[in-house]
Amino acid sequence: MKKFVVLSLISFLVLAFGATVYSQEKAPALEFKASGWIDMSAQWKLNVPEAGSGDTANDTLYGPVGAAAFRPGGAAFDTHEAWARSRGRLKFDAIMGKEMTGTFQFEFDADKWGGSAGAGAQRNQLGHWQADRAGLEVKHMFITFGMPWIPIPITIQAGIQPISVRGRVNLYNDGAGVTVAAKIDPALIKLMWFKPTENKNTASDDADIYGLEANAKIQTLTVGGYGLYYNMNSYQLYPGALGISATTGVTTAAVEPGYSADMWWIGAYLDGKLGPINLTFDFGLDTGTVKDRRDLAVKAGDVDYTGWMARAEVSYPWEKLTFGGVFSYGTGSDANKTSVSGLPGTNAANGTVTKTVGGYVFAPGSEGGPGDLMIINAHPDFDRGTTGYFGGPASQMARNLYGGLWYGKVFAAMKVTDMYKVTLAGAYIGDTTKHGNTLGNAVTSTGALRDDSSIGWEFDLLNQIMLYKNLTWDIGFGYLVANKGLDYALTATTNKSPKDPYALVSRLTYSF
Fold first, then answer.
1. Whole-number Å distance between alpha carbons of 113 and 126
2. Which secondary structure element, helix H or strand E, spans residue 203, and what is its range?
3. Which sequence spans correspond to the domains of the chain?
4. CATH code for the part of the protein at 2-23+43-511
5. What does residue 284 show for φ and ψ, rounded to 5 degrees?
6. Is CB count within 10 Å lower at the N or C end of the chain?
7. What is the DSSP string of 267-292?
8. Residue 246: which residues within 8 A CB-CB, separation 6 or more?
9. Tens digit of pLDDT for each residue in 154-188?
10. Model-level pTM?
């Protein structure tokens, strides 16, 4: 039924648009615009994973966020890493008056200068010595058009496009879908349908996202809310890439999905100013169910999800200075009620079968993240937000460094000159996971998971230099004074603390 409604809406829009084509007296002139950026970045770090890569365990609800290389005995544990790399994006807009635009955006990646994944490697390998890599990627390809024959301003965007619903705390990614936005002053209303997964055309193993977001400007404040419904007939989202057997619930060419999920993400937010004070607030709630669809004599039963998060940021500008603070809280899972994966039929730390997940979870495939801290959750201005423990896009629901964490941060920024801005920040990071830890996996003398309340103190120094109008140089240094919440199990009953993590990151960016 849902698919019928969506397809009917699209068919109506096509017919309505087509009926007016012949009434146009003269087509407007076609205009091309190009924009983009090129960057060069470098890192020098200790015990800091790279978010969204093989360094991080992206699909987990708690436990060691660092992959095996970053735990005791691993190649990256207590060992310095350093590299340089580049990325570029090129965007073309074909503009036909105010009514229509076609957009292509391409991405080019040199994952590491001098790197190569082996013979024939192409994607992300532009830094390969001698170059000549086929590293062009299509990131966006969509049409944007208006509907002037309708009395209210409506814009439709269809194709491979960004989907963003409060990206720093909820959802951001790129994918295929349709967005319809209506402007009814003072409100903006958006309807969304996206297609994350379509595995086999002959089976009900696809996934759809249906969304509604609305906000309104009230004097100096923008107040809004959203609801996102994920109908995942196949759960996890990326079965083909994982290569896991059918009994784990992953769809392959030969079997039906082992799990399905119906999930909601509901939130409210506020942005703007109260007098001289800048204010941002977000509240998010996840709720839903993961079901067991495996061909078993006795099914494991459902797993119910309910978690929440809140984030508030306040800043006060005073001449060339800005002072502020951030508070963030995300509910954590209970390791005695929930397994690391949260899948039906899996056991929690004490051996009980998973039935509930109380930690706040990000939607599968979301690249969103807070970006408040350099070490813990990857600052977006420095190396594109990849340095840090933030886990990146997961194939199933995961903590993504809201679930299981709380932190309070204070900062002071000064615009020293028109060309130079410096920011100093300090934060305390706590752990909200129960009967276990969010980022570490320390154990007690009896072999049970240890429950620690503190992850540590982080201090960041951020420098932003405008060398020219379109050329910026960001240099950041972050240091985490680690507490027990970052300890790792060395044996079944003993632990090892890592050296304090730190990272020096530099990014030079030319925008055009």
1. 8
2. none
3. 2-23+43-511
4. 2.40.160.100
5. -135, 145
6. N
7. EEEEEEEETTEEEEEEEEEEEEEEEE
8. 252, 254, 255, 258, 294
9. 999 999 999 999 988 888 899 999 999 999 989 99
10. 0.89
